[in-house]
Amino acid sequence: MSADAPLAADNRLLQAGLLKKILSRPEFGSIIGAIAVFVFFSAFTENFFSIKAVSAYTNPGSTLGIMSVAIALLMIGGEFDLSSGVLIGGLGITTALLIQNAGAPIWLAMLLSLALAIGVGVFNGVMVIKTKLPSFIVTLGTYFILQGAGLGFTRLISGQTT
């Protein structure tokens, strides 16, 4: 038998069925998990399909969905941002402090928070490009800085962190 002649078994392995292709996809486990959670809660909860309940479990999806688009773009590019979660919390604190304690109008507080988010993103980007450090390390440092700043400002304003 020559090295150029393909084996019959090789051709059979290449011809996987549609069901086998679907089951071999990594997304399939997520879909099955989501369906299982949906079936479980619809079977054991009375008001699972009420307007109030649907609003309660779909409302956080908009915030997470918008954030995940930006993070997905970074991950597709081979980078990673660990500071995004704590940045969202810090921006919420910043917006609330500007409105409540500084008396800023809501539109100005949101604009300043957006400027802060852009500033943190530019800082992370410049640090990654100029220092050639991995984005994981730079954004981990930014994570700790933002977390400490959030705790510090909260303690400064309210006197407690709980």
Please give the structural blueprint.
Elements: H1 8-14, H2 18-23, H3 27-44, H4 51-76, H5 84-100, H6 106-131, H7 135-158
Determine the N-to-C terminus distance.
75 Å
- Quickly count the domains: 2
Percent strand? under 5%
Report the strand count: 0
Range of helix content: over 70%
Query: Largest sheet at a glance?
Result: none
| Integer average pLDDT | 85
The succession of helices and strands, N to C, reads: HHHHHHH
The helix/strand class is mainly alpha
Uncertain segments of ≥5 residues (pLDDT<50)? none
Number of helices: 7
From the alpha-carbon coordinates, what is the Rg to the nearest angstrom?
A: 24 Å
Instruction: Tell me, briefly, the overall form.
Output: flat
What can be said about this structure in brief?
By secondary structure, this protein is mainly alpha-helical.
